[in-house]
Structure formats: C-alpha cells, structure tokens
Amino acid sequence: MPIKVKDSLPAINTLEDENIFVMTEYRAMHQDIRPLNVLILNLMPTKIVTETQLLRKLSNSPLQIQVEFLQTASYTPQHTDASHLDTFYTTFDQIRDRKFDGMIITGAPLDYVKFEDVAYWDELCEIMDWCKTHVHSTFHLCWGAFAGLYYYYGLDRYDMEEKLSGVYAHKILKRTSPLFRGFDDIFYAPQSRAMGITREKIESVPDLELMAYSEEAGVTIVKTRDSRHFFVTCHPEYDADTLSQEYFRDLNKGMNPKVPANYFPDDDPSKAPIVNWRSTGQLLYSNWLNFYVYQTTPYDVRDI
After folding, report:
1. How confident is the model at residue 66 (pLDDT cuts 50, 70, 90)?
2. Fewest Cβ atoms nearer than 10 Å: which of 19, 127, 188, 201?
3. Are strands 3-5 and 22-24 parallel, antiparallel or unpaired?
4. Residue of 51, 170, 229, 237 marked catalytic
C-alpha cells in the first residue's frame, strides 16, 4: 500500500524518482474504497493447484479482493471433479453482463496446437473481446499471453524444437514502471513452454511495451500502453516443486525431457530445488493489483 504524506513535503519528488509509491493527502481524502472484483479464467487441467497458486499471490495484500472462477462451456475439463466445477466455477453466459476490475487468463498445456484448433478457441475469443469493455485490466499468463497477443494483434508465436523449462534470469527494461516497484534489476522466474514470440514482433506494434526480457528465455513481460492488458510468459506463481512434478511426469511418460535449467542444485533431480522467485511472484501480482487495478479502476464497477 502507498505511504500517505502531506501534499507539499519536499521528500515526495525524491521518493517518486526512486519509484516509491507516495499518495498525497488530497488524493487520500478523495479516494473511495470497495472490494476489487477479479475473475480468473482457469484453463489449466490441474485446476485446484492453479487456484491455490494464484490465490496465494492475490491474497498477500491489504486490498480486499473478491475472486470468482470461470470455466469454458465449450470444453469440459477432464482432470477436475465435476462437483468442484459446479460448486466453485461459473460460465461465461452467467457473467457476460457483469463488469470486473481485473481478470487473469491462465496458461494451458497446448504446445504445438494451433490456436484455431483449440476446442474452446471461439469461446476464448468471445471472452477476450468482452474483456475490452467489461474488464479494467487483464493479466494474460503463459499460453494465455500468446493467445492474447495473437487475438488482439495478430502476432503469432513460434514453436520450439525442445521445451523451455527451468528458472531463468530476466532483465527489467523499464525500471520506472510501477509494475516493478520493489524488484531487483535482474529477477528470476520459472518458464515452462515450447512456444515463444520474437522481440521484433512485439516492438513492431506501437501499442505494446516490452517490459522484461531474458537472453535465454526471450520475451517475458509485455503490456499495452494503456495498461489494460499484461502478457506474461513466465510463471512467478509456481510452487517450489511445480517444475519438478512436470519433469518427472514427462520422464515417466518416456518423453526423455531435459532437466529443468538452473533449478535442481548441481542439476541433480534427486536434490530439492531452492526457490529464488517467490518474492518476484508476490511483487508482480501485488503491483498489478495495486497500481493497475485498484488505483485506476472506477469506484462504480459499472463505469468500466
């Protein structure tokens, strides 16, 4: 949360130059506060795991957040109990007339599948189009990021010969962005995908800003200049053992996967990984919620 000070305090300019969030007394007096309404379209087969990961990042904040989960109606998940979906999830037809402060569109294990061949692609396109008028800021995650860049801007991904898996160093390209308040100049985050998009494609679209990049993993964080959409290809919400579970799952399937890079000590899968991305994940989601949702969304959600 911001620190509140008197309007004319000399330290304000210095603190703001250091990317510290300062709220003037005038602004604080005129702020209205209400719970934020956040919708999560969970496309992952491991729905309960993904729910827990995302809620952990959204909950460590003094903001009051009302979270709802959305599932596709055109495709029935095969790995989650129907009673769980009936109890905790809604469908697009049930919420299409409502508006939300924020939305997260998760990734999905759809490497090498063309977007148009995805069973729920038409429904997802309808939801992404709806976001433009019914959601204040949308956070597209991993496959959801590539799907969003393709739908909104026609930027297609490229497929990798081998899956990118591991924990990689990423460089912040726009240090003054509120999205990176509290970040180190280099941050670490897991990657797990077999698709990417070139830096040149992102930079060819005037409406897009490349925010973070990795020499090994490529484009990592992109946002629109109006901050209505964020496209994040990494997984800062991952648990300590998520990459490990993916590795052993693929190993047991006879897929001969590479050991995730920079993950197991000494590249030895028998050793427990050391987490060096937990604070990154917390800051990224908290900063998005605070600066791009809470601080700018209309008080009356119907005005979005």
Report:
1. confident
2. 19
3. parallel
4. 237
Query: Residue 214 CA to chain centroid, in angstroms?
Result: 17
> 92-115: per-residue pLDDT in tens?
999 999 999 999 999 999 999 999
CB atoms within 10 A of CB 207: 11
Residue percentage of the chain with pLDDT more than 70: 90
Identify whether 30 is a catalytic site residue.
Answer: no
Query: What is the pTM for the complete model shown?
Result: 0.90
Residue 142 among the catalytic residues: yes
**Could you report the per-residue pLDDT of 205-264, keeping only the tens digit for each?**
999 999 999 999 999 999 999 999 999 999 999 999 999 999 999 999 988 899 999 999
Distances (CA, A) of 116 to 42, 153, 229, 274: 19, 15, 22, 38
The more confidently predicted of residues 78 and 196 is: 196
The residue to which tokens 């460089």 are assigned: 171
Percent of the chain scoring above 90 in pLDDT: 74
Give, to the nearest 10 degrees, the angle between helix 47-59 and helix 278-287.
70
Of the residues 142, 170, 229, 234, only one is catalytic, namely 142
| Cα 132 from Cα 74, distance rounded (Å) | 21
Q: What residue segments make up the domains of the chain, in order of their start?
A: 32-303
Burial class (CB in 10 A: 0-12, 13-18, 19+), 222: buried
Whether 289 contacts 282, CB under 8 Å: no
For residue 66, list its beta bridge partners.
37
User: Cβ(26)–Cβ(2) under 8 Å?
Assistant: no
pLDDT of 7 above 70:
no
At the topology level, CATH places domain 32-303 in: Rossmann fold (3.40.50)
> In Å, how far are 43, 45, 274 from 79, measured between CA atoms?
11, 6, 29
The verdict on whether 237 is a catalytic residue reads yes
Pairing of strands 36-41, 100-105: parallel
Question: Which residues are within 8 A (CB) of 272 and not within 5 positions of it... i.e. 6 or more apart?
Answer: 240, 265
